[in-house]
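Hi V.,

You were right to ask for the full record rather than a summary. Here it is.
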Amino acid sequence: MKTHDVSAALRARFSGPEWALFFEVGDATGGRHNRWADAVAINLYPSRGLEINGFEIKVSRGDWLRELKNPEKSAPVQRYCDRWWIVCPPAVIAPGELPPTWGHYEIQPGGKIRQVIAAPKLTSQPVTRDFVAAMLRRASEVDAGLVGAAVDVEIKRIRDGDEKRIAREIESRTSHTTELKARIDEVERVSGIQITSWCNSEEIGKAVKAVMTSGVLKTYGGVQALREHADRIVKQCDEAIALFPAKDAAPIDEVIQ
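Predicted structure:
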């Protein structure tokens, strides 16, 4: 998990109209700047005390251990906050490591935030103009990491859509090819001709066209009926000849005359 993924989760959780969220907020601006917080959120509802929450973002255990070695680093911004939080993926903080004045938010798979330990209410100092200026400066800037995360999500959505469209197209064309192959196999089976072994496919086309346009397929039933009728006539002739003695039969040349 990357820092901008955690930042995106924070933005989703501490969003308007209830919250105003700023990233990388210093305790002052210009040469008076000393330290900064990864994020600061101000509650905009008077009924909820207009609380100021500060956040440290850690994406690895190594980051967290370095933070623990310098606990005073967050103090210049933390002093203006009503609550202070660590925000990190699972397994970054071991049991018992969290300072007593900190709360713990954990980023779950899918970008959801789960509160592990509630941050206690701190005794904050009045906000100075320097601190307000630091927040306003961040409000006028765009966080490149969040923009990148949003772009990544959109690219993934487009790619997923393209992959599904391509899969449907492949399935459609494969189905058509399979059906066509089955028809060719059936023609080869009935005709006894291996189409793929013919050098001149034009000859096959002409032969098929001749058959289709000559009416043979349409007159097959009539030809069959005619043959059956001829068989009946031959049978009747045989029966008639059998009625005459052989001695009564005239020579064939007399019959012709």
